[in-house]
Amino acid sequence: MATRASTSSRVSPAFTFLVIFFLLSLTASVEAAGRGVNNDKKGGGLGASFIFGDSLVDAGNNNYLSTLSRANMKPNGIDFKASGGTPTGRFTNGRTIGDIVGEELGSANYAIPFLAPDAKGKALLAGVNYASGGGGIMNATGRIFVNRLGMDVQVDFFNTTRKQFDDLLGKEKAKDYIAKKSIFSITIGANDFLNNYLFPLLSVGTRFTQTPDDFIGDMLEHLRDQLTRLYQLDARKFVIGNVGPIGCIPYQKTINQLDENECVDLANKLANQYNVRLKSLLEELNKKLPGAMFVHANVYDLVMELITNYDKYGFKSATKACCGNGGQYAGIIPCGPTSSLCEERDKYVFWDPYHPSEAANVIIAKQLLYGDVKVISPGLSVNVAGDGNSGMSVLCDLDSDEKAANLQPCQPQRASPSSRNRSSRRNSDKNAIVSIQ
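That's the GDSL esterase/lipase At2g23540 sequence above. Prediction below.
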């Protein structure tokens, strides 16, 4: 049932490029929006960041749902300086990877949650976050939480946003803005295993009637349809994260009563099976959909490296949740007002039974920003500025229909401390890491 965490995993250079690639687009879109969206001239940067997914990137949509999957209660957000420690709906104690890298790159805000009351008018032009804790590729995923936004619903919501862009910019400019100047980031799939196929109370029937291969096949067919729908709505540039090592999170270790250095075989095996087939799907879509660019982010290897070698990064635990209750690793009940809370929050890889801590996000963000950038998946050619060893030397001019053929290198600017302090309305997360609630 259990396997020891591998010590040979390495951070994927492909993932290094891809996450920064996305976050640079986020920076460019926010700055463009602040200038009144003057992106008509050649090389004017990215338009908007559209974020789809689950609780790893939920920026607060679940705050507006009657759901059991919520993070807008203390001590969540206790270390999130931009809100003064007030919970925002993020499923962590502070900043996500998106927050950290966004600050380093100089962004002032992130995509607004679709369900937020002020998600209208020009606020949409920097991008919209549709992600929802508990959401998955399959519609049945996460039903234990009662309400959540699955990927089908998130795409429906983007259709609404797409019409609003026509009203804001006019049909011709809106199409150009969406197709040429915007990035679509998708972080989803782990819930389909954790809170569907592997969930003890809900999965018995499914696991009797479907083999793992069949279930993963259904997931990928649904995802194919969802990505194709986005393409039909003029989405062209995608960053798709694979599923992390979900067998190594505190929840899985607790319910399976594992030793600290063990992970659940089945959960990680399912993640790896899905990841192999996901990459093939994205390669297929790159060939079949004219003008589309589907970029694959290898989240699994990045997270496994941190979990396996946690002490090298200054952590004392990559097993126990800092905030949670139940079992050896506080991995049963999510973080809330009655949870036990660790004293050294910066020494834990996991904030709660499912999600990384801010300290873990900082480590990963530094790797993304300053690690070498040599491999892009799937199969895009890269022209990198500088010596090729810095993640800050990335490509950010996407004002072209060709797949990265004519990209130009750029050097992002870090935000000053004063500008960061003014950013009290940060509303979004980017790709974090492991599996979710």
